[in-house]
Amino acid sequence: MQVRELIQPLLLHKATGDLTTEIKGIQLDSRQVQRGDLFIALRGTKVDAHRFVEQAVAGGAAAVMVEESVALPEVPVIQVPDTRRAMAVVAAKFYGYPTKELKLIGVTGTNGKTTTTYLIEQLLRHKGVSTGVIGTIQTKIRGKTLPAKNTTPEAVELQKTFRMMRDEGCEYSVIEVSSHALDMGRTRGCQFHIGVFTNLTQDHLDYHGTMEKYREAKSLLFSQLGNAYSGQLENNPVAIFNADDEASRYFMNRTAAQVLTYGIDQPADVRAENIRFFSSGTSFTLKTYRGEVPVRLKLVGKFNVYNVLAAVSVALVEGMDLQQIRSGLSGIKGVTGRFEPVDLGQSFSVLVDYAHTPDSLENVLATIREFARGRVLCLVGCGGDRDRSKRPIMADIAVKYSDYAIFTSDNPRTEDPIAILDDMLTGVQSCPKERYAVISDRRQAIHEAVRKAEPEDVILIAGKGHETYQEINGVRHHFDDREVARDAIVSRLAK
Ligand SMILES: CC(=O)N[C@H]1[C@@H](OP(=O)(O)OP(=O)(O)OC[C@H]2O[C@@H](n3ccc(=O)[nH]c3=O)[C@H](O)[C@@H]2O)O[C@H](CO)[C@@H](O)[C@@H]1O[C@H](C)C(=O)N[C@@H](C)C(=O)N[C@H](CCC(=O)O)C(=O)O
Ligand SMILES: Nc1ncnc2c1ncn2[C@@H]1O[C@H](COP(=O)(O)OP(=O)(O)OP(=O)(O)O)[C@@H](O)[C@H]1O
Ligand SMILES: N[C@H](CCC[C@H](N)C(=O)O)C(=O)O
Ligand SMILES: [Mg+2]
């Protein structure tokens, strides 16, 4: 595409150079530039990419987009007031507005996004349609998987991925929409068909500052939905809310879309009644505006009933009937690294879970408590360079819901692991010392938990779930809780 065509939708811009120059791709990282790319300079949290425009041109960039005027006579220079905002506009244009050709479903909320997107994908597959997924674990396009750096990628990668999904024949795309992404405008230029809200509890206060600002960022998914200006009304947009979460009302007031609610405790359009929890699954009566049906799931915990109700709401909007939904749900599988057992036939249970927020840890421990015949041992840490204020709260929840807690490192990133543990310990000052231990090395901590376990005990290894690395001092080392737990069980069984 020629530069002039690419920048045609941009209202405010100054362009110099030969605007008939062909653009073959868009790149935000000067180190990754390929011949023919448009390089867009963003002001990041660590560096300002305006420093790299010359490097980008030397690397083959055919044009640059900047906020500051730069003298680069050899290539077209597009100067805009806000490169981040302009990026979303040109990315959508470059890839031919792929979200107009897809049914795009966005899931936001503090916890349950990955799980809910996977449930939606499985239900839609049961309907017989092809669905791509973008989120924390990976990007899935039909049989292919691509690694994920962020839960929600930047606008350029998002639009490129949507185009790939269309090329591969996907009809739907289900994506996790993080609050960071909404705040940074990564999903600008996307035409959503459905927005789903899971829940809002404390996380990411390092980034947003207050819960009000965090909620406001999340609300952007819904305020952008059903907006006639963006042509979305033709798309019959629907916003799906958790009736049991008080933030839903706030979001509801901000959307022009049609609204559907799901819930357990409050009145809702899609509800679960007569819920029965078993150690191997859950059953309930699914009551909807299209009738009711009994349901059996292999997933455990009330929190997963919410995730299922959110996914069922999407399935209903997409025209699936209750019998189809019921049979789809009976085959549903859990998500890797979420409540995942490590079972080598030992006499105690080991569960690896991605709980890394106060609310998710509380939910998962409460669920384990309900079924554990022996003691509950909880191993948990908190990530570095992230919300510090959740650390003492998570430590307090760990000792409250378990018989014994081991505080250890998660991903310390650039922080001192001991300082993170000290923050956690401020939450358990009044707790007797024999109720917990501090073992900074995660491998040692897992081995200690396994050594300590008695028959019927349940060990929860929380925080890292599917992750296959541990980031220490900015370096990612291979680390997989499931592998380490397996090694620990093997060495214990050998004794
Ligand atoms: C705070 C934040 O979100 N940072 C994101 C941001 O990085 P940054 O602003 O620090 O970038 P930077 O290093 O200052 O660089 C600025 C620009 O210079 C460019 N650059 C840099 C160096 C160079 O030599 N040449 C060059 O061109 C970079 O490509 C970039 O465009 O832009 C990067 C590239 O798009 C993102 O990967 C990065 O996410 C980091 C990894 C991150 O950890 N983000 C977290 C907070 C996040 O977004 N999390 C949410 C999930 C939360 C949840 O669900 O729990 C997510 O959606 O992933
Ligand atoms: N609906 C829910 N409410 C509360 N906790 C939940 C819910 N669903 C899952 N969890 C807990 O949160 C953990 C993370 O779940 P999931 O990966 O689905 O969330 P996420 O929102 O995608 O997280 P992230 O923000 O890291 O992408 C799970 O391992 C489980 O412990
Ligand atoms: N998407 C989450 C992942 C947290 C995972 C946890 N293991 C950690 O490193 O804190 C975040 O960026 O806050
Ligand atoms: Mg996720």
UniProtKB/TrEMBL annotation:
PROSITE patterns: FOLYLPOLYGLU_SYNT_1
PTM info: Carboxylation is probably crucial for Mg(2+) binding and, consequently, for the gamma-phosphate positioning of ATP.
Family named by the database record: Belongs to the MurCDEF family. MurE subfamily.
Organism: Thermoactinomyces mirandus
Residues covered by the Mur ligase N-terminal catalytic domain: 22-95
Cofactor needs: Mg(2+)
Pathway(s) the chain acts in: Cell wall biogenesis; peptidoglycan biosynthesis
Its biological purpose: Catalyzes the addition of meso-diaminopimelic acid to the nucleotide precursor UDP-N-acetylmuramoyl-L-alanyl-D-glutamate (UMAG) in the biosynthesis of bacterial cell-wall peptidoglycan.
Keyword tags: ATP-binding, Cell cycle, Cell division, Cell shape, Cell wall biogenesis/degradation, Cytoplasm, Ligase, Magnesium, Nucleotide-binding, Peptidoglycan synthesis
Name of the protein described by the UniProt record: UDP-N-acetylmuramoyl-L-alanyl-D-glutamate--2,6-diaminopimelate ligase
GO molecular function, one term: magnesium ion binding
Localization in the cell: Cytoplasm
Annotated ranges, domain Mur ligase C-terminal: 337-465
Pfam families: Mur_ligase, Mur_ligase_C, Mur_ligase_M
